[in-house]
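ARCHIVE CARD
SHELF: 3
SLOT: left
DATA:
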Amino acid sequence: MSSHSDDSGDEDDETASPADKSELHSTIKSLSLKLDDLSTCNDLIAKHGAALQRSLSELDSLKIPYESSEKLKVVNERATLFRITSNAMINACKDFLELAETHSRKWQRALQYEQEQRIHLEETIEQLAKQHNSLERAFRSAPGRATNPTKSFSEGDLLTPKGEDSEEDEDTEYFDAMEDSTSFITVITEAKEDRKAEGGTTGSVDWTSSDNVLDGASLVPKGPPKVKRRVRIPDKPNYSLNLWSIMKNCIGRELSKIPMPVNFNEPLSMLQRLTEDLEYHHLLDKAVHCTSSVEQMCLVAAFSVSSYSTTVHRIAKPFNPMLGETFELDRLDDMGLRSLCEQVSHHPPSAAHYVFSKHGWSLWQEITISSKFRGKYLSIMPLGAIHLEFQASGNHYVWRKSTSTVHNIIVGKLWIDQTGDIEIVNHKTKDRCQLKFLPYSYFSKEVARKVTGVVSDSQGKAHYVLSGSWDEQMECAKIVQSSPSSPGSDGKQKTVYQTLPAKLLWKKYPLPENAENMYYFSELALTLNEHEEGVAPTDSRLRPDQRLMEKGHWDEANTEKQRLEEKQRVSRRRRLEACSRGCGTEEEKEADVYVPLWFEKRLDPLTGETACMYKGGYWEAKERQGLHQGPQNFL
């Protein structure tokens, strides 16, 4: 049995849902009835065949003319052949009937066994999750456990541990894996006379005038906006829905292929979430004025981390964009930039993004979202390179996103974590920044959501240490001296960096008032789905299901979402049928047939990968009111 799946519903799904089981039972019942009909027909053929033979025998005994006798003989021979053929068919039908009845009983027993095993497995998983949850709570409440440990020096961290004003509460659940925290140790130095090198590498001993651009990088004065934008959306309805009841049939599957009601969405599309990465664009505006490439790297690294700050409470799934859907952010007046996203592939889901800033930088990327449900947690892996170029200096930075993980799918409070390493490379100067997102551990003394990093030049010499948390702030400290530490208990050596006092690079904006009832949207996120005149008919703001959900009409939104998904299925089937070039997979056929409107595939010379890049024309078309063209609309 197969069923349509996917957020837009056009991939086959090998996982049996409750509806599939019911349909399978119905199919078996129908087959049994057909077998009964076949048995009845078998009896009727045998009965009428015997009667025909008797009638022909009676005709043979009658005295009839010679010519009629010959014809009767031919009919009799044909009747005999029919009888022989009928008998063979009857015997075959009997064999098939017996075999089908035997196997039908086996199939029913096997199906019943599989259903019982599945129910038992689901109950076992849920029970294990509850026991795990109890053990986690017991560990956190254990007497004698330090809650805010202090240290004489910081291991890869220049921030003090979070105090009582932290947003953590007793319901927060944490990742239970022990990780090696950092590969270096930082020691803050104050007095100049204490900064003499003793067998180590010594750098400049003070913040210099070229570092002044880092002062107040996180502080951006906000004047009155030129365009008044909304500051709130309707409160989220209080619908209760069990996520595990839907996800338990989807273990190991791609998230975009799991049919989801809007109850698990937030009223923004993935294109709008991608645009949210620009919330702290002022870091790049500031980086334009850096004369030092390693100093500029610090601000680029802070920008890359800041894009995760909006995810800390955002465990809802954004809408999966339709193929050809677009989203523009035309904010030259207040943000100094223009941004355009387009959904360029549906399987796998992929979005292309291009940003131009009047302050002297541009950013582009093609991101493919790969996601898997692993049972207790959900992994979201954004694939694809992000490019950032500063026009004046020619510095060209490339990096990739880290993995996001949503925990406690079965039981407990949902929470999200960012894990993995990010390497940012300046392809002009060969400077590098190594960022490490540390997964939270019960047994770690580190602060939650911690990020550490080191900025090095092309020779491998470290210049800055970065530290902070991806949900709050990032700091950088200039390295004065570096030296190896003594081997630890595991025999490993860490590098000790002696640094100047840290400077704040980035600090998260506070959430708007009542944010907890507005999907925890930031100030920028609240404006992304606001209606605007002059946008393309493919713009995410015009999606009716998303708009209905934002207004709180979730039942109507689900109905509209199904309509749009069916429309997309029909369009996709037509494209695949039209492909007559003998492509391999359906994805290859679709990629071969569908051509993005505002982006085109090119070979990226830096990564060696083929990616969709902006080919121009969108903003010019908007100015002459020519955006009515497009492959997709939502009517």
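SLOT: right
DATA:
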Amino acid sequence: MVSFHRSPLLLLSGLVFNALVSVAADQDVFILQQPSSAPPPKTLPLRPIEWGQLNFISTTDTHGWLAGHLLQPSYAADWGDYTSFIEHIKETADEKGVDVIVVDDGDQHDGNGLSDATFPNGEVSQKILMMAPIDLMSIGNHELYKCEVTQQTYDMLAPHFDGRYLTSNVEIMLSNGSWVHIGQRSHRFTTKNQGINIMAFGFLFDFKLNCENSRVSDVEDVVQQAWFQSAIREPGIDMFLVFGHYPIRFWPEMWAIHRAIRAVHKSIPIQYFGGHSHVRDFTVLDSRASALQAGRFLETVGWLSIDGIEPGKSEDSPDYGKPLKYSRRYLDFNPYSLSFHANKTLGPDGTFGTKNGRKISKIIDDYRVNLNLTYPFGCVPTDYLLEKAMYPGPNSLLSLLEEHVLQNLVGDDETLHGKSRLIFINSGSLRYDMYGGIFTVDSGYIVSPFDNAWLYIPSVPYSIAKEILGKLNALDYIFMELTTPISRTMMVRQQNLGDTFDINLMNSLISAMSGPQDQEDLKTTGYVTIDDYGMDGDDTPHKPYPLYYLPNAVATNDSFPADGSAPESTDVIFLDFMKPFVLEALAKIDSTAPKDDWKVLEYGGKPVKELIKDYVRGWGTECIKDTR
């Protein structure tokens, strides 16, 4: 348990955004179905969780990964295993006479076949999600892109949580035209064992790309509204819990909430939980307020314990306001790790899997089969990675698309076939790495879950077209409409790190600071997290992967003159999301031609995930036995 202090690593954690340290599981073990009961290979013991007076379990940005990571042993638990873990932890809390609260910070759609292979998106996965004994849940931006998903959230999740699904700044428009909050704005409760009186809020960052049936109010405005000001002034509150979908480092929303509460309560405990930026992180706001963020894609379970809360004590007491003691841990999401922290055993006769947990695992397996997610297309010969591989390079997923996949795009207009063309794709259209082994229907959703259409501008002079890629990559970022992938390394500058950020220096520092042990003893690569409390937050000691920048976009040319010369003109093809960026690039290249002068047409053809599936088929099926 660590008392409040400003870690000497605080400055470094701010520079590297903790998070940008990487992040893949060892691939020596191949798993065909969930759940895995085999521990990932390692030689060093796990760092245990520390219990406190009040304890939290946290997930965020699960994005449909309820079946776990079938090709990554370090993250191969499933939602049933997580349910077993929660049930054991809650039982232990009762035995110890302390409290545990389970929170989820939103974004449960877009990223996995279990969530994306149905209409509406999440029709199956949300039912599974609700089977776990989660105490509090908030909304994410991925619950708001599509109107039918927003309606599903209002109809399904909000009633299930019975006042514990919190959307303090998010509303939905009903069929009669009136606006109501999707969930509750706040929730007040008293903990079971310690009797801590808590006021909870659930906020979303200032999101603007929502469907028209929802409304997101800016956090800065909401904290000044009468209902919020009244809620934070209710008598008898021992602690504020503010969880939701906002990054806990650099972004302003959390600090707007903090200023509003601190204006009324100078030293009451406040605990924040965040999400959205897909990182592990822990930040200290003051001696009695901190924030935890638990990664992405069910790679991580966040753990936080607090000591020093004084239930029922008046803030006017002369000795009120002593620094709280915190302990945080980021648990790798595999059965070995979860069972270790639950102090249970694995295996057919083990004590870890509860009745509910095993039932949920079976339901997940059945749904995967029923949705045809296990159908195999082919065998990927090696890992193709995003930030974890150098671009360009033989293991870069972007390079694979650029050099082998994009040129297989076939438009709907046969008269265009054989014409010179430049095909652009933004790196944000790829969501996750493609690992060696069986590539299934599910794999397609994982690598690229989006169905963006292809557009084109015909016959652009090559002297102009060849400059587009450079202009796109000179931008700070290109957001993919459905991802807002803040974890992308190309967005480092957006996180206020500046142009002086040296990624090579960061990688060297991470390797040097990973601990006294010989890194050759670490058998798995994975997260090595730097946060405000240092580098000992990860439960599993890992050998870090290096981190590489990704460009905003890549391009491939196709049907250029056989003699190697440049064509006079070329069709410029790109995903529909990229349209404003491409037009802006053209305006910068040729200032004499207004954006509206470029004729943008529909090109047709398969989405990226289907192009990848087609290419994988060419690798053969030798690794496939029976996955169905």
